[in-house]
Amino acid sequence: MKIVQVIDRLEVGGAERVLVDLTNLLHESQYDVSVICLLQEGQLDAQLASEISITYIRRKQKFNPIYLYKLYKELQKYDVIHIHLRQVLRYVSLLFYSTQLHKKSVVIFHDHFGRIAENKSINGSIRSAIKKCSAYIGVSEALTSWARERKLNEKVYKLPNIIRKKETGVNYDQKDYNSVKVISVGNFRPQKNYEYLLNVIKSSPDHYHYTIYGQPVDNGYFEKIKTQIKSFKIEHKVTIITNCKDVTIELHKYDIGIHTAKSETGPLVAIEYLSENLPFVAYNTGEVADKVKLEFTEFIQNNFEVNNWLKQMDVLLKSKEELETRIELFYNQNFSEDAYLKSCISIYEELLNSTKN
């Protein structure tokens, strides 16, 4: 079984992180797996195992047949073509009509769309492309239910995200116990609701310091947030880091996490916090939040009342040691790498077997 994971570019983002982790897991389990990027090199390339082949199509014009032909020459080498993100599927699906690629290989679409709760519409070309795929994978129940309701594909699977634990080799004695260090993770786009986070920062005690890790994918929004920080006069209480390639190795530096997004399918960052036994406060949105609140109701907020968030952060900080033990057990039970890999391989094998019958 030859497998290829397909994406536009491995920049820092949730879908990209999932691809890197899944590809490395497959490689470590001795599966023949490669990566194709439609564009050029990205920041997460180096986090793939060095033995994993990456092919760059280096596409410049979407409808130039030279790039489509180059892509087809690569894709036809594989038994399983695992496509991530809707814009990538839209492009690859051009080959469905010209080459019948979807009838020659198992083609899987992996949907990471994060705003399904507020945007259930679907472009006609994407709908047609999903129907031609061998299967649809959603990262949440919201996505898989949506796909089934709209009969987008006969085979719909859920593959919830995981985050791989990192060994940080940390000396915890280096922490500053006179301040509370809060981390927020998420690229700068409106759905992350950073305006609300700034209200929380503004009302926080003086010994709280916040660090936001995120890339300015929406530059206008990024500039708006920076302007608001200045107008609130909270520059001394917040740091923005835009060039971090792997936030999981930074999490040990912080006392508590926060996530203020209004709409998420994950959120993936919640799993990142859990992987480092870090308590957090987050808004009640997404599948991970649904799972977390069954065990940690104190982590999930049902409103955007600043005082409620600050009070809850104080409660969590006071019980941090006890929480860390519970979080580790919860993470191991619910976000196992082995279970994730087995689920993915079973999808591949089922689809391959169905093409032989």
TrEMBL record:
Keyword terms of this UniProt record: Glycosyltransferase, Transferase
Keyword Transferase recorded: yes
Residue ranges constituting the Glycosyltransferase subfamily 4-like N-terminal domain according to the UniProt record: 12-163
Gene Ontology MF, one: glycosyltransferase activity
UniProt-listed Enzyme Commission number(s): 2.4.-.-
Protein origin, superkingdom: Bacteria
Keyword flag Transferase: yes
Sequence ranges assigned to domain Glycosyl transferase family in this UniProt record: 178-324
Xref: Gene3D superfamilies: Glycogen Phosphorylase B
PANTHER family: GLYCOSYLTRANSFERASE (PTHR12526)
Protein name: Glycosyltransferase
Native source species: Winogradskyella marincola
